[in-house]
């Protein structure tokens, strides 16, 4: 399905340490508490799949499981969390789904999703002995906080490459709740202290990894870096973020309309405690109502119905204010973007936003709600003009103007939600902690897909899990807290700072050498977007 293929809104590796299992050719085993877990091996990586790490009571925080006892066979993926149904135009989606790279990122259909979905998958280099202390790369999947699961990518790819590089790592991918199940919002939710449930699921998985092994931990998304006053609590020591930085989200009350709609769409409208009523609904009833909420492939696009918001507990302020306050885990991080972050999110809204007037009205109502034309100034005229040669896919002249405002929407949406927040993040962290930045221009080779350029998640599809040169930088980073290392023949990746603003550029042609470019494009537009989003968060 389209929505679960490409839309990794937040793709992050976190780094931890973990004790290795006992190797065995046929069926590797690992001891957890008093239990023996039996996995499988393909000769390169031993895998332990679908290990449950927490219970997921509906609209409540996760509850860690354990201690484990007995013998458990963990040779198959566990269920994904409930996926938000798409109300999208599906023709294009189906075509993209037929693309071999896209299908690689698709959710599996053989195990139905379940609310009891908090499981994770562990891949270890085959033959690692039980005294090894290997660093761990923890993958947090994307999917616009609406869809996705840990089983859509093959962690064995990373483990195999790490062994070839002589820098072995363990790989863990965890599930977390998405859509309303993970990110229900509203005053009722805030009062009950159950905002940002999906982020709490990730945190519990990180604690599990910590407990299972020992020693230093890992990091999750940028928001995991900002919570808890920037205290990582020993859970992580590095973060590798692909297309996801502290996003400009506001108070959880901004999700009230979605909450009220959900209540109205179920039989909970007359309940005295609506949250309790939602908790008690039959799953199918609730799921049907959740699927009515606007998805990422809808006209409202990146103004997501369900996403992390300021709940006063996990997030005590807007992510960007937390950055300004220095509430940031002081760990090395890599933060990057693809060139054309906004293209896939502009296919549906550009069907109805057809001219300059509609564009202005749409931007003001959908993304900078509360702002006036005067707050916006000359942003739409000067920085994101009605001129396809300035739009995204960038640098393609008048090509790919499939609809009049498509390239313009693609440019501004990609910058507002992904590019400007990334630059803001690295500009405010490089002086506190080792910081690297990248731009990926890897594109689909097929002419059919050329109109989406170096689209959102193309780096995941064409590089990291391919594997490619970014895999090698990742493996070094997991081992050393620095993407540079030996044995790969790659160029040096300099740290980011405000004076040089150097960033690694994964060029279009993957046979061409990498280059270092300056992160100085669209400065004026980014600054204005950042100012607006500080004032008028999503
Ligand atoms: C493991 O088993 C031992 C012996 O039966 C018992 O004393 C201990 O409490 C168990 N530990 C856990 C974590 O279940
Ligand atoms: C595990 O590996 C270490 C380091 O290579 C080695 O010293 C040790 O003997 C090994 N232990 C076992 C049980 O194989
Ligand atoms: C609430 O109660 C009224 C009156 O009994 C009924 O007409 C209405 O359908 C109920 N609404 C919901 C959402 O259950
Ligand atoms: C536009 O497309 C044509 C035909 O594929 C190509 O020759 C030309 O180089 C493209 N222009 C730009 C600016 O990319
Ligand atoms: C880096 O530059 C940006 C933009 O000018 C500025 O907002 C930020 O404060 C600078 N960072 C530091 C650490 O001076
Ligand atoms: C990048 O900036 C440096 C100065 O920091 C400058 O010497 C170099 O020419 C710039 N590179 C490009 C491609 O503009």
UniProtKB/TrEMBL annotation:
Q: Which SUPFAM superfamilies match?
A: alpha/beta-Hydrolases
Pfam families reported for this sequence: COesterase
Span of the secretion signal?
Answer: 1-19
The keyword Mitochondrion belongs to this UniProt entry's keyword annotation: no
At the top level, the lineage of the source is Eukaryota
Taking every annotated instance into account, which residue ranges of this chain make up the domain Carboxylesterase type B? 28-506
Q: Which UniProt keywords apply?
A: Signal
- Matches recorded under InterPro entries: AB_hydrolase_fold, CarbesteraseB, Type-B_Carboxylest/Lipase
> What protein name is recorded for this chain?
Carboxylesterase type B domain-containing protein
Q: Which organism is it from?
A: Ganoderma sinense ZZ0214-1
């Amino acid at each position: 399905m389209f929505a679960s293929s490409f839309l990794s809104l937040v793709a992050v590796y976190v780094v931890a340490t973990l004790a290795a299992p006992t190797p065995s050719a046929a069926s590797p085993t690992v001891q957890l508490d008093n239990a023996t877990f039996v996995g499988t091996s393909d000769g390169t990586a031993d895998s332990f799949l679908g290990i449950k790490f927490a219970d997921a009571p509906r609209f409540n925080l996760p509850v860690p499981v354990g201690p484990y006892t007995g013998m458990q066979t963990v040779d198959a993926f566990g269920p994904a969390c409930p996926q938000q149904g798409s109300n999208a135009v599906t023709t294009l989606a189906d075509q993209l789904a037929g693309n071999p790279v896209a299908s690689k990122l698709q959710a599996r259909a053989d195990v139905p999703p379940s609310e009891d979905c908090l499981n994770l998958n562990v891949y270890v280099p085959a033959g690692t002995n039980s005294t090894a202390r290997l660093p761990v790369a923890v993958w947090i999947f994307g999917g616009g906080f609406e869809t996705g699961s840990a089983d859509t990518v093959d962690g064995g790819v990373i483990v195999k490459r790490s062994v070839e590089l002589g820098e072995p790592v363990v790989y863990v991918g965890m599930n977390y709740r998405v859509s309303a199940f993970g990110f229900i919002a509203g005053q009722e939710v805030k009062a009950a202290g159950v905002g940002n449930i999906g982020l709490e699921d990730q945190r519990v998985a990180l604690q599990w990894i910590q407990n299972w092994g020992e020693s230093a931990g890992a990091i999750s998304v940028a928001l995991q870096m900002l919570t808890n006053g920037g205290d990582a609590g020993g859970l992580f020591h590095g973060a590798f973020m692909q297309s996801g930085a502290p996003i400009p989200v506001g108070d959880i009350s901004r999700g009230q309309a979605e909450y009220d709609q959900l209540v109205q769409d179920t039989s909970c409208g007359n309940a005295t405690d609506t949250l309790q009523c939602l908790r008690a609904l039959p799953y199918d009833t609730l799921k049907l109502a959740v699927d009515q909420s606007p998805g990422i492939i809808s006209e409202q696009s990146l103004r997501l119905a369900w996403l992390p918001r300021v709940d006063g507990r996990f997030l005590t302020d807007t992510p960007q204010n937390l950055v300004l306050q220095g509430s940031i885990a002081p760990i090395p991080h890599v933060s990057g973007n693809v060139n054309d972050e906004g293209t896939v999110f502009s296919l549906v809204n550009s069907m109805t936003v057809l001219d300059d007037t509609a564009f202005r009205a749409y931007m003001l109502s959908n993304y900078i709600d509360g702002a006036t034309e005067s707050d916006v100034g000359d942003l739409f005229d000067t920085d994101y003009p009605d001129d396809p040669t300035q739009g995204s896919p960038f640098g393609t002249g008048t090509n790919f103007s499939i609809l009049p405002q498509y390239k313009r929407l693609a440019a501004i949406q990609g910058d507002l939600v992904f590019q400007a927040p990334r630059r803001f993040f690295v500009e405010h962290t490089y002086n506190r902690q080792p910081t690297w930045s990248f731009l990926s221009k890897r594109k689909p080779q097929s002419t059919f897909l050329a109109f989406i350029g170096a689209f959102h998640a193309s780096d995941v599809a064409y590089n990291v899990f391919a594997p490619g040169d970014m895999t090698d930088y990742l493996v070094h980073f997991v081992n050393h807290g620095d993407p540079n290392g030996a044995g790969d023949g790659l160029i040096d990746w300099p740290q980011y700072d405000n004076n040089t603003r150097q960033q690694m550029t994964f060029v279009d042609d993957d046979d061409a050498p990498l280059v270092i470019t300056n992160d100085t494009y669209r400065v004026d537009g980014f600054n204005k977007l950042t100012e607006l989003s500080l004032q008028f968060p999503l």
